[in-house]
Write a structure and sequence with these properties.
Length: 487
């Protein structure tokens, strides 16, 4: 097996003992290695580690310049030191309570197989769990969170949470769980990493025996569901929760039956989704989510919600099929509205191989593409989807490469981009490919530092070869939480 360099990609985590709303940098280690699989004549495996509060990490303070070839010159920043070559990988740990955080072997074939069908991704559905690793999750207090047979499993350790690094506001969430008869667990909704009160500051959808004060299907300290309403739950079977959180309302279906309809007195802010280890064995799988309230920025025959820049070469028009066509040399199309924390869904097609474009966000209005960039580029090195040739679709340009190129040129694909406070991430065709936290000092110019101020969205025409189509661009602002900057 031929080993490739170890890459370090930033991930956000937070100390379980910290009460301050402050990010703690951690790193995700990926070892890429070439192994033959039936995937275009080339496939590969890698390893990822789950971030924990005391994991040893290397922090690179130097930031690369974010200018692309067609951006105006700016003072350059030092390039980070190159990573050393390695021919070995960290030994995988069986549990999170071992000497180091658990490691997960990745297969490009399996990651690509986790992509969702077009009819789901067009509605905004993405996977919170890819079936192979805990990418996109963070552990709060130690327990033996692990992946077994395509499921997240825990059964020993401290009372603990496994929380999404992403923050969600209004959404639909679907998952399956399997719990021992005496297990006490739960799913926390709109929660802080360390919830203060399930009666006031978040929702806990319980998984617990019938003799618990709040049996399975109940919202703890809010609404009790009688065991007879749920029926007998065989601990050997998988059970399906479908949850809708919208404004002040929480609706819960269990195994296809509505069991809870709760209306809160006040609206809770956006928050994480956390899986709980309290007592006993619990397993979760097929965890999918979609944001609610997306509003179309494309529609009809005009681009009234966008501002054109005719002085630039790029052309932005509506074609005969009603799609936005992006062609020509360097240019930009800018939204008239500004967005700070948001979820954006785009359905896109590159109309030739190895094209380059991007979705810029939190841009300084009127400037030329001065914002963070969610890259659009499906080119790979030697056909290896774990090795993007140019950041990869869904990567944060010059900040974090996509962990896998999950889209193909000349085929429709979807991007779900979520930005909340300093953290930004993207899913491509339903699979999460990036998860980056900007740990730089605040600065209104995102090329120089962390920009939290709302900014416009810009679509990029990169160069004379540009030829893309967008059939949908929709966005929803996230209701900010009181500590959004520290999540």
């Amino acid at each position: 097996m031929t080993a490739c360099p170890i890459l370090t990609l930033p991930l956000a985590t937070r100390s379980a003992s910290s009460t301050a709303s402050r990010w703690k940098p951690a790193m995700l280690l990926i070892l890429l290695a070439a192994m033959p699989l039936a995937l275009g004549g080339c496939s590969e495996r890698g390893k990822e580690t789950l971030p924990t509060e005391d994991a040893a990490v290397e922090v690179i303070d130097a930031e690369p310049a974010e200018t692309d070839a067609d951006l105006a010159p700016e003072p350059s920043e030092p390039e980070p030191a190159s990573e050393p070559e390695s021919t070995s990988a960290p030994e995988p740990a069986d549990t999170a309570t071992a000497a180091g955080p658990p490691t997960f072997e990745l297969s490009a074939e399996k990651l690509l197989a986790a992509r969702l069908p077009d009819d789901q991704t067009r509605e905004g559905w993405v996977r919170l769990f890819d079936g192979q690793s805990l990418f996109g999750w963070q552990m709060v207090s130690e327990a033996n969170w692990r992946v077994e047979d395509g499921a997240i499993v825990v059964d020993e350790g401290q009372k603990s949470f496994l929380a999404t690094t992403s923050v969600w506001d209004n959404y639909e969430l679907e998952l399956q769980y399997q719990a021992d008869a005496e297990t006490n667990s739960g799913i926390f909704l709109r929660t802080a990493l360390q919830p203060e009160s399930v009666a006031n500051s978040c929702y806990e959808l319980n998984i617990a025996p019938p003799d618990n004060p709040f049996p399975t299907g109940s919202l703890v300290e809010r609404e009790r569901i009688e065991p007879e309403q749920v029926g007998e739950l065989d601990p050997d079977n998988w059970h399906t929760y479908r949850i809708r959180v919208e404004d002040r309302n929480v609706t819960v279906h269990l195994n296809g039956q509505q069991v809870c309809q709760y209306e809160d007195r006040s609206r809770l802010p956006a928050g994480h989704i956390s899986l709980q280890h309290n007592q006993g064995r619990i397993a979760f799988r097929d965890i999918r989510i979609r944001p609610l309230g997306l509003e179309a920025l494309l529609g009809g025959e005009d681009l009234s919600q966008w501002k054109k820049y005719p002085e630039y070469e790029g052309e932005f028009t509506i074609d005969d099929e009603g799609n936005l066509s992006v062609r020509g040399g360097s240019g930009q199309l800018e939204s008239r509205e500004s967005y700070g924390d948001f979820a954006l869904l785009a359905r896109c097609r590159t109309n030739a191989p190895d094209l380059n474009s991007g979705i810029f966000f939190r841009c300084i209005p009127g400037e030329k593409m001065n914002g963070y960039e969610c890259q659009i580029s499906n080119a790979t090195e030697n056909g290896n989807p774990l090795r993007p040739a140019d950041t990869g679709t869904g990567g944060i340009f010059r900040r974090q490469e996509a962990r896998i190129v999950a889209a193909e040129d000349q085929q429709w694909f979807t991007i779900l981009l979520v930005a909340n406070g300093p953290t930004m991430m993207a899913w491509v065709n339903g699979v999460q490919v990036s998860n980056w936290t900007d740990t730089r000092d605040p600065d209104p110019n995102p090329r120089r530092g962390l920009r939290l101020e709302p900014g416009t969205i810009m679509l990029q025409a990169h160069d004379p070869t540009t030829d893309l189509s967008f059939s949908d661009i929709s966005v929803v602002s996230l209701n900010p939480s009181p500590s959004a900057e520290g999540r």
